[in-house]
Amino acid sequence: MKYNWNEFKTNEDKKLKKLDIVDGLIHKFITYPILPTLVQLGFTPNFITTISLICGIMSFILISYDNYICGSVFFMLRYIADCLDGAVARLTKQTSEFGDIMDHCVDYFTFILFYISCYTKNFSNIFMIILHIFLFSSIIHYALIYRKTKKGIIYTLTKWIPIDETTFKWTKYFSTGMLTLFCSIGIFLHK
Fold it and tell me: Is the pTM value of this prediction over 0.90?
C-alpha cells in the first residue's frame, strides 16, 4: 500500500499540538515507530480498535480478580491501540463513519467497564473526584476539537453543549491521554 509518510507526519504533528502531552509522547515514541510495520502487516484500523476493546475487557477482568498491575498495563495498552487505530486510518486513507463510531463506542464501553471496576473495588473518593474532573475536561476538550470539523460521532453528541474555546483551552492539558495515565497509575497503586 502506497502512502506519503512525510505528508502524514506533518499533518499528525499539527494535530498533536491540540492534544495533551501523553498523546504526544505516545505518538512520538510508539505510534510513529511501529506504524509502518502495522501497515505492512495489513493491520486495519478496525482490527486495531478490536485489539483496544480486547485490552479494555482484559483490564476489567484482571482488576476484578485483584490483579491490579496487569490490569493497569492492559488499560494503558488499550489507550495505545486507541491512538494507533486513527493513525493507521489516516495514513492508509481508510477513515470511515463506521470506524469513527466503532472507535468511540469502544472508548465509552471500556471506560464504563473501568468505572464499574472503580466502584466495585472501592477506589478512594479522592481518586474518583480527580477521575471525574479529568473526564469532564476530556469531554469538553474533544467537543471543542470536533466543533471545528463539524463531523463525527463526538460532534453529534456534544454540539448542544454551550462552551467557549477561550474559556476552556486549559482542557488540552487534562484530556484523554492524561486521564488514561492517571487511571493506569490509580489501578497500579490500588490495594
Answer: no
